[in-house]
Model the fold of this input.
Amino acid sequence: MTTNDTADPRLDRLERWIAGLPGPPVERIAPASADASFRRYFRVHRGGATQVAMDAPPERESLEAWLRVARILAATGVHVPAVLAVNAEQGFVLMDDLGRQHYLEALGQGADPEPLYAAAVDALVRLQSGDATALPAYDRELLMREMELFPEWFLARHLSLAPGAGERAMIAAAFEWLAGEALAQPAVLVHRDYHSRNLLVRPEGNPGIVDFQDAVRGPVSYDLVSLLKDCYVVWPRAQLTAWLDRYRAAATEAGIPVGADREQFVAWFDRMGLQRHVKVLGIFARLWHRDGKPGYLADLPRVLDYALAVTGMVPELSEFDAYLRRIVVPAFAAVPRRASHAR
Done:
C-alpha cells in the first residue's frame, strides 16, 4: 500500500487504522510533507480522491492542541483542513486535502504575489477575529524562552561564541526590552507560523492554512510579521508596506486594534519582527545541531539580515546592534568554512 520500503512501525499502524475506516479502499499512501516538528503528513489516495493523514507521536506532539485550534480557526471561516477521523490514543488524524502547493513553491514558479498576499492578509484579519480566550498567552516567559534560543543555539553552538558577563547582560537587557514592546501590543489570536510554507494555494478561496497547533493569544502584529518578513522570501519595503496598509485598513474595519496611528503600528511590526527573527536564528541552528535537519541553514543569512535592519534603526538597541555587527557577523561569515564540523 505504501511506497515506504524501510521499517516504520508508526506508518504501519497508520495504514491499518485508515484501512479500517469507512469509505473506499485505500489505493496508496505516500509522504506528503514534514515540518520542523515531529509531525509527519501522508497523502492518502482512495476512491479517486485524496485525503491527508497526520502522524503526531503522542509522546512528542499535542494532538489535543491541534484539534482545539482547528475548531477555533474553522469557526472564523478561514480554510483549515476539515477533520474526518481521529485516533487520539495513537496520535493520528485523517483530514481533507487542501492542496499540494504552498505559497513559496508557487512564487518560485512565477505566480503573481499580489492576489496571493491580498488573500492571505484578508484571511489573517478573519483569523485574528477568532476567540482566543481558550489559548495560552504569549506572555513574557514564553517570549523570553524563545529568545534564549539565540545565545544557546546560534551564538554558542553554531558560531562557537562565548559572550562575556557584560555581553550576556546586554543581550538579556535587549531581550527584556523586546518582550516589553511585544506585551504592550493588543492581544489577538496568533497562528505563530503564518508564512509562505504554511499557506496553500487553492483553486478558489485562498489560502489553505496549516501548521497552526502552536496558536496563542498574543501581539496583534506577530502574524503579519511572519507573513511579510517571511524567513524564506524577502519583499521590497514598498511592497511590504502596501500589504501592511491593506491589513491595517481591513483590521480597523473588523474592529481589531492596530494602534493609535500608522507610525505606532509600523514600530510594533518592526520590533515584533526582531523578536521573531532572534528566536528563529536559534531555532534554525537547533534544527541542524540537535535534530540533524540542515535545510534551514541556507535561510540563516536572510533572517540575520532582517534582524540587523531593525537593530540598526532602534536607539534602545544600539549596544545589541554593535555586538551583532562587531562580533556575530564576522563569526557567522566563517561558519561555511567549518560547516562539516558543525555537529
